[in-house]
Amino acid sequence: MIDGTGRGWVPLIRAMLASHLMTMTLIPRDAISERLAATGYVADRELSTALWLMESLGRPLLLEGEAGVGKTEVAKALASMRGTNLIRLQCYEGLDRNAALYEWNYQRQLLAIKAREGDDAASVEDLIFSEKFLLERPLLASIRQDRAPVLLIDEVDRADEEFEAFLLELLSDFQVSIPELGTIAAKSIPFVILTSNGTRELSDALRRRCLYHYVEFPDVDREARILMARLPGIDASLALQIAAMVGAIRKEALRKTPGVAETLDWAAALVGIGLKDLRSDPEAVHDTLMCLIKTAEDKSRMTPEVTNRLLGKVA
Amino acid sequence: MGAVLRLQNDHDAGELVRSRLAGFVRNLRDNGFLVGLSETRDALKIVAGPDASRVSLLRPAFRALFCARPSDWERFDDIFNAYWLGHGMKSVVHVSGEPPKASTSLRKSGDGAPSLGKPGTPDRTERGEGKEHDNPADGRGRREGASTTDSLEKTDFRHIADPEQVEEAHRLAERLSREMRARLTRRERARRSGPRLDLRRTIHRSIATGGTPMELVHRHRIDKPLRLVVLLDASGSMSLYSSVFVRFMHGVVDHFREAEAFLFHTRLVHVSDALREKDAARAVDRMSLMAQGVGGGTKIGESLNTFNKWHAKRVIDSRTAVMIVSDGYDTGEPEALATEMRALRRRCRRIIWLNPMIGWDGYSPEARGMQAAMPYIDLFAPAHNLASLQALEPYLARI
């Protein structure tokens, strides 16, 4: 009714709708940690800020930290928080563009050529280099989704340097050029999370392009909250005890430091045998330690005496 | 506090933060952070948001944006506090103890990059001519190699005394191990590239598709990377040599995909973990702590026994070369050593025994232990200087 003809409504509604949609996707920062917690991931303020900045600045997030601290989990939690797909690219030595980006379906192409023998060569060529014959690999798939997915590029330090350079190019343009098809621009820009274990130093350019978060083993309080989020049946006091115990074990110089996933396994085992208090049955605690201790060397180090000593400290 | 911000106050804070942001960015750069124009631009975006007014919100946002590596992550709080909150600083902010610019990042990123050496040291080193007569492979197929022959390479480790030269020798030893790894990888690649078509199988499969070879079958060579296990004698008679070898081992463990290292004197110590420490100096420190054993002689036989009994199964397979670095002066029974050497020989692919004393004039392996071990050794080579270590590479590549 702005100018009496009603024409003014259409843009207004469109604008309202657009702003509504905006707020739908742009999750306010304070809500992020709550929503993450709802998916079972307990994030600290630093991480939720980083996740929020990913969207507001449109940058990828690089996660570093020891094995087992839950880097991959961050991507899973982000995807489930946003209700979107998680597309994962696991890097390894020798990973190349074909395995990461796209590949032609050669078998089908050959069949098609055979089936159209005698046809005009140009038309056959057009046909076999069309989308129908294109095999999407994770990177291409991630930019062709209607709804922005979470793209997890796992252990990027394992890939070769050439691949890293290619990745950098993709992460800044979000378009892919396929010689036979032309350039494919992103339908939606994925949320990109990269993880690295530090087996190789990443290039400065890639580091600079990314937001950065160093994931550490959760402190006792946070680990207890993780336990309670993931194992709804667990007692709060038991969760605290378990978290404190794992924290103490991590301080022992073990060959393989137990990660968060191992803590969850152990807690599930303890809940499974109906333990309410770690102190009540040190033997059962020691027997179930195999959920945490994964090498023979560490096992010989974690004698019942060590277990008791640690139990005495934490419980 | 003077110029320092009181951020909590009011919404003018955004303006204040913006005006001082450039200084903060410069400060981070001085501290070796990788901050470019686009980071500054994004920081301005953050400041324009509601975050600027609260330190507790600004800090994690800036931290995620400006940090790029673990060392940044650790130092960020100090720099942030010093600049924005004026903690522990008067006016100009340089975080104390941090040398300005890049030197830390250089050290961190140095492993694997040849930039580690001083400009004056050669990037590649070439073996001396006359020293390699006792080495079966003379490396004629070497594809590259500049020829700056540093005299240090040929100097017996015993005669390197000047601390700078010692450091230089350590560095060379480490780089050498890295080069060996790089060459070995390159050899593997060259061999593997271009998988050959297995025509017979391809044609056979094509029968199903009416003679069109739909599915190409390739021949692959199954290559397992070489594993290396190093056993280093850390006893008194070897003390002049072991520090250089420790650096060499550090390089090997760091750069071979699968390598294990042990020290022995009167007993055997597994030191791979200590050697995986990225910082070479710290690794060596950790090792020397572990190496402090009860004094008094070398029990090679007993140490090998421990190795065979407890470690061999895990660390040795058919592609493993075992490298023993020792002068062969054994205080135990030679028979025991012979037994253990025989057991070890059955397990692994090659036994290489490096003996620093071969390099000495007029040496012949007369030590009883050495005599007992000789029949089981595939390669008995000198290791008294860097050139002799380098001479090993072609041999390892052929294993």
Brief sketch in words of this structure:
The complex is a heterodimer of chains A (315) and B (399). Chain A is α/β, with parallel strands linked by helices.
Q: What key attributes describe this structure?
A:
heterodimer, A: 315 residues, alpha/beta, 16 helices, 9 strands, disordered N terminus, B: 399 residues, 8 strands
Oligomer: heterodimer
Structural class of chain B: alpha/beta
Estimated helix fraction of chain B: 40-55%
Overall pLDDT level of chain B = 70
Number of strands of chain B: 8
Walk me through this protein's architecture.
- The complex is a heterodimer of chains A (315) and B (399).
- Chain A is 52% helix and 12% strand.
- Chain A is built from 16 helices and 9 strands.
- Chain A has a 5-stranded parallel β-sheet.
- In chain A, strand 6 and strand 7 form a beta hairpin.
- Mean pLDDT of chain A is 85; it is low at 1-6 and 17-24.
- Chain B has 399 residues and is α/β, with parallel strands linked by helices.
- Chain B contains 16 helices and 8 strands.
- Chain B has helices spanning 13-30, 37-48, 55-66, 70-85, 103-109, 151-154, 163-192, 199-206, 239-255, 272-275, 280-291, 300-315, 334-347, 368-373, 386-390, 393-398; strands spanning 196-197, 218-219, 227-233, 259-264, 268-270, 320-325, 350-355, 379-382.
- Chain B has a 6-stranded mixed β-sheet with strand order 5-4-3-6-7-8, with helices on both faces. Chain B has a two-stranded antiparallel sheet with strand order 1-2.
- In chain B, helix 13 (334-347) links the parallel strand 6 (320-325) and strand 7.
- In chain B, helix 2 (37-48) packs antiparallel against helix 3 (55-66) and helix 12 (300-315) runs parallel beside helix 13 (334-347).
- Chain B is flat and about 85 Å long.
- Mean pLDDT of chain B is 70; it is low at 1-10 and 89-150.
- The interface between A and B is medium-sized, with 28 and 31 residues.
